[in-house]
Amino acid sequence: MKRIFVLAGILLCLTVAAPAASEVGVTDDTISLGTFQDLSGPGAYLGKICTTALNVWIDNINRQGGIHGRKLELAVEDNKYDPELTKVAFTKLVDRHKVFAIVLVYGSGPCTAVKDDITEKKVPTFPTMASVESMYDPPSRYLFWYACNDEDNAIMMVDYIKADLNLGPDKAVIGVCYQDDEWGKSALEGARLAADQYGYKLVEAPYKKGSKNLNPQVMKLKARGVTHCFYAGYAPVYAVLLKEANKVGWKPKFFGDYVTVDPRTFAAEDLADGHYHFFNLGLRNENTEGWKELEELFSAAGAEKMLDVPLLPLLWNSMGMFETALRKVGTDLTREKLIDTIESIDNFDTGGNGYIDYGPGMRKGTHQYRILKCNAEKKIFEPVTGWREPSLKWPEREKLK
Amino acid sequence: MEIFLQLFITGLAWGSVYACIALGFVLIFKATDIFNFAQPELLMLGAYTALTMVAWFNLPFFAGFAISLIVMGAAGAVLEMIVVRPMVGEPVLAIIMVTLGLANILRGMVSLIWGPEELPFPAPFPETPVRIFGAYCSPAELYTIIAAGVLITGFILFFRYSSMGVSMRATAEDTQTAFLMGINVKRVFTASWVIAALVATVGGVFLASFTSYAAPLMSFYGLRALPAIILGGLDSIPGAVVGGLIIGVAENLAGFYLEPYFGSGMNEITAFLIVLIVMMIRPYGLFGSRIIERV
Amino acid sequence: MSVNRYCVRTYKQDRRIFPSPMARLGLGVLGILLISLPFWAGAYWVHVACVCGVAVVTTLGLNLLTGYTGLISLGHAAFMGIGAYTAAVLAIKAGFPFLLALPAAGAMAALAGVVVGIPTLRLKGLYLVITTLAFQFIVEHIIFHWDSVTNADTGLDLPAAALPFITFDSKEKFYYVILVMVVFTAFCAKNLVMSRTGRAFVAIRDRDIAAEIIGIPLARYKLLSFVISAFIAGVAGALYAYLVGHIGPDLYTFEKSIRYVAMIIVGGMASILGSILGACFITLLPVGISEVFGPLASAYPALATRIGAVNVTVYGLVIVLFLLLEPAGLFGIWIRVKRYFTQWPFTY
């Protein structure tokens, strides 16, 4: 009888120990990574940027012999920006491709749909760029967020109006024109917090995702005398907003969020000039070390066109940090060790392309931003402030809500 | 009052775009009894063709526009011959589904050829707004309103006086009888697709001029024209235009006046609310012909 | 191999759901395969099978409305959405158990079916199509903007489904719930269409005015069709909500509605088997395409979006070619294949 127990004990140990010996998705000579991308849906242009960037990144690492002798492999699944298909794609990545980690995903709908699965299956997801606060609040050990937060930015707009422009509540009326999803609502939330705090009047003008007629919104903002307007949404729609405002003769200062730092903003030509933007990355015209590396690698890969995307460092900073963490873990690579390593990296060096930092219980990778000013003549954005944080800091400001 | 006028005029301009889309739907339906769900994709294709002519081949805008009209007309004819003609006589739903499949194909082809990102559209219209009755109007909007006016007058005359127009009407009324009367039904079918493709191109070019971009997502605007058609009546050309204008204006007004009470998408669903109400009162649209059924 | 053996001699034989012994044998084999699926297929295919199952349930309902009664609905995803949100809200806020939430979801959707059904009684053909479309968009709007209940686009997280003695905390377990629901719905639908009600539906579809003349109360049966179909869609929506564990407004969009209509057309109108085949086909088509294009996209990430575009084109192409070559749908092919084998060697 005793022998049976011993035997059973050994068996049990074996079954428990067996998977621990080698991590899922890691073999002696490969590490398999997965990603779900929108390749044929409304966000396909993002899919194109991300898949190209991942391609350049992986080729670059594999050319140098991989990570501790292990080459990187990538499985791409098309999710068409659809939560249902994202769930299918996620299951496929985890169950069929048996990936070690998921890299570079985006989309609030798609990412929210698999958020719980990520935690349950313990698959490190680095990073998600979805514009939803639930990606890092409450923090999930396996989910890392790196993008800009419009709540931060909207607060910073009020700070800027108050402290830098020296316009008191009697001289400025704040407006928020936003796409009516979580992304836009976070901008409204931030503007409301700050406006309440400092006594400014606030006007909100939401528009439906996909809409390109902003006439009712502009009329509302104009009628209520808005002088400074935050904009949360895509760059082409921002250009429409600028044109519409010009058409009806409304001349406020606009503060675009990070997505409007985009060449497509210049479709509005000189109307875009002199308006402000928020950004957490280094700019190409600053010639940072990071951008020089990007130019070199992307030109060599024949993807020069990607260099026109100012958001490229958003992908590159995080992938660079991921690579560093993978190397730092050493040959005995496991998911848990990787996460501990990512947490232990302080102020990752992005070559002047912005800050990215995580810690235990801290999954929000972005804290500092700069305010840029649009120069339509040269078609560039120029920083007008240094790196700064919003006056109402996260997570402390949650108490004010 | 000034605000109202401004909303009204901008609404009118958007309404004109809807009217162009709606016209395409109605033209095909009127001649062939087929509801073409790929019409929004024709609109998108039209905009992309014009973009290619102007931006890639460096043609002057109006020459490029004219050539893209020819190209799109040919495309309409080809689509009709390959995809739609074999389906004649099949159940309505099967044909609807074929056009939906066609929509998928066109969307896929567009993002295959031109890529998934928005491309800047080289509109020739100046940015300086024009002042009309105290409201501002961009030149692109003004041209759209005028173009819609010209199109509707043209088509009303076409259907009333030209022999092609009359045979199209006859075919719509009763295909078999028209066939027996010696009307070339095949040609009528093809002609209706050609004309629909042309109208779609006009609509697409104006829509792209409004928004400065040609994008694969443009086709979603096609759906917004559906209420216009239903409102006007599926087989009425003036109905499509009036319906389009009503929807455009109502949307814009609702976006301003009702948004504080019902939330941000109000302008989008106003059209559908209007449709629901109209359908309860007049189940065949405002201008649609009432069908008398026999057992 | 005599043809005689399948000859139908009595009414009782005619009323059988599965008339031939071969059909019953085939069904048995299929049943065993389906029941054992979680043991050999892996989590991915189980998930795909679950999605298929939900689609089958919805399609069965939609086919009752569109295939049998001839009322076209482009708003079926909205009914599913109503069901899903009802189940989610009841489960989260009122703590409804799974067994109660499911019928409640159906009931709420059925209620919506009445609301849509009454004004549409006078409408026909495309006017009805667009009115249901309007309903679809209005429901989408409400889901998106009724923040306090639906939580807008953050969506709602559902608890795992549970019966008194078992919690369906994994996909493999929930698979059986869906399987049971599919069989149950198919059984009910088959029975319904073979009954007086089913025949009334078909009469309305073929000639509604004639149907009224021979004594079928049009309004009642049209409404009944709407209610049954919406009820089934609501239940399917709730099932889906429990399957994915999280619902948001993106799940019940117009495109989904279109997909369900595609399922019945591709499968075969007015056919139970057709509904099942169509639902599986349309659900599996993108899965199959991604089996081919997925590895391609992984191998050439730089071309990934081009590959995605081809993927969309192929999807459309398959549907168009299918309808051009086989307008009767998968069911038509099935009948032909079956005829070929039953009449072998006397084929033509």
Which secondary-structure class do the elements of chain C indicate? mainly alpha
Supply the CATH architecture of chain C: Orthogonal Bundle
Give the quaternary arrangement of the chains. Answer: heterotrimer
Shape of chain B: globular
Low-pLDDT residue spans of chain B: none
CATH class descriptor of chain C: Mainly Alpha
What is the total domain count of chain C?
Answer: 1
Q: Number of helix segments of chain B?
A: 12
Report mean pLDDT of chain B, rounded to a whole number. 85
Question: Please, how many domains of chain B?
Answer: 1
Low-confidence stretches of chain C: none
Strand content of chain B: under 5%
For the largest interface, the chains and their residue counts are: B-C, 50 and 50 residues
Instruction: Give helix % range of chain B.
Output: over 70%
Largest sheet of chain C: 2 strands, antiparallel
What does this structure look like?
The complex is a heterotrimer of chains A (401), B (295) and C (348). By secondary structure, chain A is an alpha/beta fold. Chain A has 2 domains: 25-148 and 285-344, Rossmann fold; 150-279 and 369-400, Rossmann fold, CATH 3.40.50. Chain A is 40% helix and 16% strand. Chain A has helices spanning 2-21, 44-63, 83-96, 108-121, 150-164, 182-198, 215-223, 235-247, 289-300, 312-329, 335-344; strands at 30-37, 71-78, 101-105, 125-128, 143-145, 173-179, 201-207, 228-232, 253-256, 276-279, 370-375, 380-383. The N and C termini of chain A lie far apart (63 Å). Chain B has 295 residues and is mainly alpha-helical. Helix content of chain B is 74%, strand content 3%. In chain B, the strands form 2 sheets. Chain B has a two-stranded antiparallel ribbon with strand order 1-4. The N and C termini of chain B lie far apart (54 Å). Chain C has a two-stranded antiparallel ribbon with strand order 1-4. Chain C is an all-alpha fold. Chain C has helices at residues 11-14, 21-40, 42-68, 76-93, 98-120, 125-145, 147-150, 171-193, 196-206, 208-213, 218-244, 254-267, 272-299, 304-325, 329-342, and strands at residues 156-157, 161-163, 166-168, 246-247. Chain C has one domain (46-342): Orthogonal Bundle (ABC transporter involved in vitamin B12 uptake, BtuC), CATH 1.10.3470. The chains are: A alpha/beta (401), B mainly alpha (295), C mainly alpha (348). At the B-C interface, helix 4, helix 9 and helix 12 of B face helix 6, helix 10, helix 12 and helix 14 of C.
